[in-house]
Amino acid sequence: MGKLLFLTMLTSSQIKVCVAVAKKIIELFGDKHEIYIPVDKDWEPKVKEMCPEIKCITFQRPSEELQRQFFARTGKKKEDVFAEICEQYNQIWCNFDRAEVVNRMASFYKIIFNHLIKFHPIVNEIVKQVAPDFIVTSFHVSTPLGIDRNIPYAMLLTSSPTFFGHEFLPPPMSDLPSEPTLENIKIWEKFFEEAYLLEHFDMKERINFWLKQRNCPNLDERNFYLVESPYLNISLYPKEIDYNPNLVKLPGKWLKLDSAICNPLPEPIVIPEKLKNLPGKLVYVDFGNQPFIYLYHVKEVLKLLPTLKHRFIVCTGSIDLKDADNIYTEKNIESLSALQVADVVICHGGTKIITDSFHLGVPQIIIPLFGDQIDNGRRIDDKKLGIRLYTSEISHQVIDEAINKSCNPTLMKKLKEISNRIKTENGLKNVCLEICKFLK
Ligand SMILES: *[C@@H]1O[C@H](CO)[C@@H](O)[C@H](O)[C@H]1NC(C)=O
Ligand SMILES: *[C@@H]1O[C@H](CO)[C@@H](O)[C@H](O)[C@H]1NC(C)=O
């Protein structure tokens, strides 16, 4: 028997990917191994439902108390603050004000770094308690915890490969064109120097200093984000949108995972009665499980849906939204259930939902907000395998056109082929077998 511990920063994408890997391991090896995933109270029941065999260790999300204090101190409403931030992000990406982008990015990394510092003692305690044989880390800036106790670990990257930081990759979150033409490489380099070398230099020094004190390897020169593993590296990204493997050569071995879906799929959602007899495409709208962050987004998009001659299933999270004849809303929808029946998906472009959509061959309209959603949206649009929109350009006409274009037979055929390839190759099994080699 072996003990396997997954460590995440509690993003939905990371948790769902880890659960899919865990489920597959259980499918392959039964109860041979013990699998642990630390989560907060909100996630515990969801993880239990997805996979009852996983042992959840609950802890309090370090940002919770800070947020509570912030809102108590300022008297501001959470929704308003997030709406404001979203609006700012939208302005930045639309107008592409380089200085603003750089500025924003510095604050984004500051938040991630602060998270890392706050997670560290909590997670460290959990590593001690579980004493695993192997750790799978899916952190943003990863600290391979357990390194000081000689516990081997895998790095599981569940965000865009731009975060590798490579000369033939656009800099992460830059929203720059993604093909490595001479001209683009020049723009990338300029952006990289301004945004990552100059602006972030101090912070990177601080992160490296902090990592060093914990026996962790440094972040290398280009790479701002990850500490790879000398044992096993895994990257989640479908081959068809991956970045030029002949140019982007990473040292060592990287296992590629197209998608993280474990069979059997959840039951497809039953098409709601009110939508059954309406004309138009069936569109699934999902902006993830952090509705506050996407409030502005969701509202902007939703406002338009009643005017369109299509049918919508919308996952609203905890936002109360007005219903309309052609819209069915539900607070929590299992995206895999909805994607099985949808003609098109409108989403934020996070790595989990885009990989799920490719797996199931569903055309995507991506309206990204921040982080690697920007890179994913840009990449998929550049590869002509989906459509990326900016919130501020959204209108009745734009969405209508995007839905029409998504249902173009040539694109649908291509997506079907991709889906068949992914299902046949079964990369998840391969990844699980590699992980289990480290378990006795
Ligand atoms: C993981 O990736 C890093 C960087 O690409 C590489 O140096 C290392 O050798 C890789 N690990 C393995 C086991 O190949
Ligand atoms: C979308 O397709 C429908 C039906 O084919 C058509 O009536 C509508 O004009 C199209 N809209 C756009 C913006 O192309």
Automatic annotation (TrEMBL):
Keywords: Signal. Residues 298-412 form the Glycosyl transferase family 28 C-terminal domain. Gene3D superfamilies: Glycogen Phosphorylase B. The keyword Lipoprotein does not apply. Pfam families: Glyco_tran_28_C. InterPro entries: Glyco_trans_28_C, Glycosyltransferase_28. The keyword Signal applies. Residues 1-20 form the signal peptide. GO terms for molecular function: hexosyltransferase activity. PANTHER family: STEROL 3-BETA-GLUCOSYLTRANSFERASE (PTHR48050), STEROL 3-BETA-GLUCOSYLTRANSFERASE UGT80A2 (PTHR48050:SF13). This is UDP-glycosyltransferase. The lineage of its organism: Eukaryota, Metazoa, Ecdysozoa, Arthropoda, Chelicerata. The gene is UGT.
